[in-house]
Structure formats: structure tokens, C-alpha cells
TrEMBL record:
Keyword set includes Transmembrane helix: yes
Regions that span the bilayer: 179-199
Protein name as catalogued: Helix-turn-helix domain-containing protein
Keywords of the record: Membrane, Transmembrane, Transmembrane helix
Source domain of life: Bacteria
């Protein structure tokens, strides 16, 4: 954290509770129930021991797993590091809070690395304010002392008492001192003015943090051809119907209907619904559409070379005329699902499971979406029918799509040993068609991290093969 705390303190209970309330109401931490629950427990643990007059001891990992996350009493931290992951995430969120919304707080709550205890530190900006006040007071004091020293001389001069006046040499010294002081002030003012003018004339150097990402072989092809790019957002297949009781129109989402083909199968099974159910004209988007786009859009220094379109509006011509980047769920792939024909996985009927064609291992969301769960996503890159480049970042839930977009636009991740291990054989021009599977961890839809777990070549001929 840039605002590195320097001086330890022990805030009183009321100040700490008020501080905690502001943290829980902030945009940085307040949107995550798990972060709020965790920081609340840590603070109240500190207050409880403090009120008892006991020596403060940080809670144990097992205690947090049981009390905060509802794990069983036989939880073994040696086999599951999820508490450490959540603490690490909370530590980063607190650092962000004190750099942004909480930058004017009098103190900060810290979780020192290597443990789960709290420490409370003065923030440097508070110390700086105090130091500045002290300096200003000292200057004012010295100014007053000098003014008090000179005032009697001026008063005696006005009274005309020649016997008490300083000698000519003393007057000369005072005059020279005052003249020198004024001259020094003029020079200093001129220097400041000149430097300000020069600073305004110099163009600030703009650091483009995305340039190394554009130059990486993963993304470089996107900017080396002449085609514009479409960021394709996966929207969900929505339906309209009339409420049989009120006759009012309403929008509905049937999880088993994700395409026109699914809808026809539905009508075949329930023919009486054909008269009352229609396809909705309004799009329905999940949060991955917004948060994932946030990571991809800055790749484009020239905004005229990129557009955003819903997958439901994608045309066959778009698959030929544009470079494409799909962001969305497996169930919303639409026309981009052609890549599944050349994939190493088969996609389940409703887009809720992937099966490895070689090992028959099944990948799907495990756990409770309202608590801790594991999601899977697949990143694919392959050549389109006209030499255009198509990327797809698809997952079962928001977590995998957002985490893949974040991971693949992070230069540290792109240069990590983990990524290189799976990607290095596809880095040359000879291997443009491949897929990477990601495993992502989340708690209550809070994204905690991701890793590449497998990779494989795509059969591009199968992708663009004419249907039989």
C-alpha cells in the first residue's frame, strides 16, 4: 500500500465501530458479503478481547473456517487453503479502500502477512497534516518574534528620541538584512513562477500499460490484420408470455430454452404453449458482460477499430468480416458454438457441463453459488473463415468469464510459469487454433482467483465443416 502506516495505535471501541461501519458501506468492500462478514468478525474478536482485558491473540485459521464460513469442526487447514485465500483478498481490498474512499481516515486496519490478527496504524496523510500545522505554527511564531523585535526600533524612531536610536552602522545592518530578505523572496517567487510555466509547457508522458499485452503473441494477431473487431456479449434467451390469471404480459427465463431449436423442442413437448409464448425482443445480460468487457476494451488504443454487439444480433457475415471476442456463458454462445465441433470437449445439452472427449471427465460448477464454489471456463483462439481471428471466453457462470478476462489481460499472468507451461507450444504462428481450460474459485459470486488447468489443439477443419 502506498500509504504505508508508520505509527501503531489502539483505537477505542466507538471509533473502531464507526470505522467498520464506513468500510462496510464502501463500494470497495461493501458489495461483498464475505468480505464484510470476515472483517466484522476480526474487528469484533479484537473488541471482545480488549473489553475482557485479555492479551490480544489473533484468531486461528480453523476458528475462521468454522465461525465465519460455517465449516465443520473437523476442518483441516493443511488440506484446504481457502481461508488464506479469503484473508489475502480482504487484505488487498483494505489496501484499495485506504488508497481511495478511505484515504482521509485517521487510521487504518491492517492484517499483517502471515497471520489473521489485526493491527491499527496511523495513516501518513494524517501525520503529514499534523506536521504541516506544526511547521506553519513555528513559522508564524518566528515571524511574530522578528516583528516584535523590529517594532520598538520603529517606534523609537517615530518618537524622535535620538539618544535611544541605534547607531548608523546598526541601522545599516537592519536595512541590509531586510533588503536581503525581500530580495531572496523575490528570487524564490520568480523561480517558482518560471518552473510552473515550464511544467505547463511540457507534454506529460503517457504510459500505455496495455502495450505489452498487445505485443504478446496471444493478442498480437488481433492488431496485425486489417479487420475491425467485434466484442460479442452473450445475452440470455428470453421469452414473453401472458399471465394466465391476470392476462398481463411478462418476461420469463426458462433455463432449458437457450436457442430457437430449444424453443421448438419445447413446443413439440407442450404444443398448447405455442399460442402464448413468444421470443422476447429485449436483451437480458449478466454482470460478466460488463465486468469482462472492462478488462478487454482498453486493449484497443484506437476506439474506431472496435464495436460491441450482442450474440443474438450476430450474423453469418460477421463471422467472416470481423475479428471476434466472445464474452459470456456456454449456454449463450449462439453462432459461435461452431467451435465446439473442433473442441476437445463436448458441451451438455443446456450448456451446464463439459465432458473431455478423451478421458470422459465431466466439468461443471461444484458447490453452492451463494457460498463457496468452483467454476470452469474455456478460452479459445482460432482462425475464422476469411483469416480473421476469433477468441472466445466462455464459462458456466459470471466468475469464470470475469476471471479469464482479468487473467489474460494481466502481463504478469501472461508471463507466469503457469501460463507459459500450457501456452508455449501455441505461441508460434503454426499453432493458431487452441483452447485453455481455467478453474476459478468464488465465494458468494465474489471472484477470488483462477488458474489454467489444461490445454489442447482445436480441429479448425471440423469447426468450419459444412453440416451433413
Amino acid at each position: 500500500m502506498n500509504t504505508r502506516p508508520e505509527t501503531a495505535l489502539k483505537p477505542n471501541k466507538n471509533a473502531l465501530i464507526e470505522h467498520l461501519t464506513r468500510i462496510e458501506a464502501s463500494d470497495t468492500l461493501g458489495r461483498s458479503k464475505v468480505n464484510c462478514k470476515l472483517i466484522n468478525y476480526l474487528v469484533n474478536h479484537y473488541i471482545k478481547l480488549n473489553e475482557q482485558g485479555s492479551e490480544y491473540k489473533s484468531p486461528k485459521e480453523v476458528e475462521l473456517a468454522i465461525e465465519v464460513f460455517g465449516r465443520a469442526s473437523d476442518f483441516n487447514p493443511a488440506e484446504d487453503a481457502f481461508v488464506r485465500v479469503y484473508i489475502s483478498n480482504l487484505r488487498k481490498k483494505l489496501e484499495t479502500y485506504y488508497q481511495t474512499e478511505g484515504k482521509h481516515e485517521a487510521f487504518c486496519i491492517c492484517i499483517p502477512p502471515g497471520g489473521y490478527g489485526l493491527s491499527f496504524q496511523h495513516l501518513p496523510n494524517t501525520q503529514l497534516k499534523a506536521t504541516t500545522t506544526e511547521i506553519a505554527t513555528e513559522i508564524a511564531t518566528h515571524t511574530k518574534l522578528e516583528a516584535d523585535h523590529l517594532a520598538p526600533l520603529a517606534d523609537k524612531n517615530n518618537l524622535g528620541d535620538q539618544s535611544d536610536l541605534p547607531t548608523k552602522k546598526q541601522n545599516s545592518n537592519i536595512f541590509n538584512w531586510r533588503t536581503g530578505f525581500i530580495a531572496l523572496g523575490v528570487i524564490l517567487l520568480a523561480s517558482i513562477t518560471t518552473n510552473l510555466w515550464l511544467w505547463q509547457q511540457v507534454e506529460p508522458v503517457k504510459v500505455d500499460s496495455y502495450q505489452p499485452i498487445r505485443q504478446h503473441t496471444l493478442w498480437r494477431d488481433l492488431f496485425s490484420n486489417a479487420k475491425p473487431t467485434l466484442i460479442v456479449v452473450g445475452d440470455l434467451f428470453m421469452l414473453n408470455e401472458r399471465d394466465p390469471d391476470t392476462n398481463r404480459p411478462r418476461g420469463i427465463r426458462d433455463y432449458g430454452i437457450n436457442s430457437y431449436a430449444d424453443l421448438e423442442d419445447y413446443f413439440a413437448q407442450y404444443p398448447h404453449k405455442r399460442a402464448s409464448v413468444t421470443v422476447a425482443q429485449s436483451a437480458f445480460l449478466l454482470k460478466n458482460s460488463v465486468f469482462a468487457v472492462k478488462h478487454i476494451l482498453p486493449l484497443f488504443a484506437d476506439p474506431t477499430r472496435v464495436s460491441i454487439r450482442l450474440v443474438s444480433d450476430l450474423t453469418p457475415d460477421d463471422l467472416r468480416d470481423y475479428n471476434l471476442i466472445y464474452l459470456g456463458l456456454f449456454k449463450s454462445l449462439g453462432a459461435i458454438d461452431a467451435y465446439i465441433q473442433g473442441s476437445n470437449f463436448t458441451l451438455g445439452r443446456h450448456g451446464t457441463a463439459l465432458t473431455d472427449k478423451t478421458t470422459n471427465q465431466v466439468y461443471k460448477v461444484t458447490g453452492n453459488l451463494q457460498q463457496e464454489y468452483t467454476d470452469y471456463g474455456v478460452f479459445t483462439k482460432f482462425v475464422g473463415p476469411s483469416g480473421n481471428i476469433i477468441y472466445s471466453l466462455a464459462g458456466f457462470s459470471d466468475a469464470s468469464v470475469i476471471q479469464m478476462a482479468k487473467y489474460l489481460t494481466n502481463p504478469n499472468k501472461l508471463n507466469s510459469d503457469e501460463f507459459t507451461e500450457h501456452y508455449q507450444m501455441y505461441a508460434s504462428q503454426a499453432y493458431q487454433n487452441f483452447e485453455l481450460m481455467f478453474s476459478t474459485s468464488s465465494f458468494d459470486r465474489t471472484d477470488l482467483g483462477s488458474q489454467v488447468i489444461s490445454s489442447g489443439k482445436l480441429n479448425v477443419k471440423a469447426i468450419w465443416a459444412m453440416p451433413h
